[in-house]
Write a structure and sequence with these properties.
The protein folds into two domains: 87 residues; 61 residues, Head domain of nucleotide exchange factor GrpE (Nucleotide Exchange Factor Grpe, Chain A, domain 2, Roll). Helix content is 52%, strand content 18%. The protein contains three helices and six strands. Strand 4 and strand 5 form a beta hairpin.
Length: 187
């Protein structure tokens, strides 16, 4: 009740001696109906704005979840590739030892370890790249030497100095290769 009186006290007095018209009764068309309609319109606008903010917040949350998921997947992939890259050097050392060893029991044990490491790499999708006879591909090979030969066309891999590895299209380590070059004709 006091709030309605306070509202009455805040009204401005009539101008030029005009008397103030009494407010229309409930249910009669007039100013009360307009105020209610105006309040309804304001509430509808507020609801639409709140609904829009909610939809935007949900879309932002969904985008964040997707971005965070991709980031986690990227970091897991990078960690796995780093670990696999670190395994390649010991694998190279075992392979060199096998090439130098005879058929002793020690060489057979090394062969078992070598096979296990290759199986581990294969389980994680790593495959050897670089084979004799392949055309040289600078995205997958690193040329460490050139050998003059007429047996194969220019740019053909003629020897593998160190095997390369890739997971799908991603190169973990390029293969170090010797590439063929046609001998120069005497001038």
């Amino acid at each position: 009740m006091q709030s309605s009186r306070a509202g009455d006290e805040r009204r401005t007095p009539p101008v030029d001696g005009a008397s103030e018209a009494p407010p229309p009764a409930a249910g009669e068309p007039g100013q009360g109906h307009e105020e209610a309609s105006q309040a309804t319109d304001e509430l509808a606008q507020q609801l639409a704005a709140t609904d829009d903010r909610l939809k935007r917040a949900l879309a932002d949350l969904d985008n964040y979840r997707k971005r965070a998921g991709r980031e986690v997947e990227r970091r897991v992939t990078e960690g796995r590739e780093t670990l696999l890259r670190e395994l390649l050097e010991p694998l190279d050392n075992i392979e060199r030892a096998l090439q130098a060893a005879d058929h002793s029991p020690l060489a057979q044990g090394l062969r078992g370890v070598f096979d296990q490491m290759e199986a581990l790499l294969a389980r994680h999708g790593a495959q050897r790249i670089g084979s004799v006879g392949d055309p040289f591909d600078p995205t997958r090979h690193e040329a460490v030497a050139v050998r003059e030969t007429e047996d194969v066309p220019d740019g053909t891999v003629v020897d593998i100095a160190r095997s390369g590895f890739a997971i799908g299209d991603r190169v973990l380590r390029p293969a170090q290769v010797v590439v063929a070059k046609r001998p120069r004709l005497p001038a």
